[in-house]
């Protein structure tokens, strides 16, 4: 059985790219942080802000495993995807992906 995927479309912006118009790799982490916030917003009435500021529950990153498999360029239409790989009592493992509308996997982080 496949796991549910939280997906949001995104158009690659000029500000996310290097001088060659290729996504500057740290920008993926900004995009994925925004995706994670939107995911929590969709699950909790108080949203991500309420989780962090109201409940004072943090979501620190402990470990990252990253694969860059294809480039994304200024103007590309992509889907940012979030899959919950494991949900525990005190931690969760996520897989985050950037997939082009051409169905090419651009980047994955676990």
UniProtKB/TrEMBL annotation:
Domain spans labelled Thioesterase: 22-97
Q: What is this protein called?
A: Thioesterase domain-containing protein
- Any Pfam family from its record, for instance, is 4HBT
* Signal peptide interval: none
Residue stretches in coiled coil: none
Provide the organism lineage as a comma list: Bacteria, Pseudomonadati, Pseudomonadota, Betaproteobacteria, Burkholderiales
Read off the InterPro entries from this record.
HotDog_dom_sf (IPR029069), Thioestr_dom (IPR006683)
What GO annotations for molecular function exist for this entry? thiolester hydrolase activity
């Amino acid at each position: 059985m496949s796991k549910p995927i939280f997906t949001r479309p995104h158009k690659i912006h000029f500000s996310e790219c290097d001088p060659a118009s290729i996504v500057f790799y740290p920008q993926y982490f900004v995009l994925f942080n925004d995706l994670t916030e939107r995911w929590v917003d969709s699950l909790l009435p108080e949203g991500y802000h309420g989780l962090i500021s109201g409940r004072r529950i943090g979501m620190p990153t402990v470990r990252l495993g990253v694969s860059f498999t294809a480039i994304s360029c200024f103007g590309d239409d992509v889907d940012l995807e979030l899959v919950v790989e494991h949900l525990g009592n005190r931690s969760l493992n996520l897989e985050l992906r950037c997939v082009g509308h051409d169905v090419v996997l651009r980047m994955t982080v676990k």
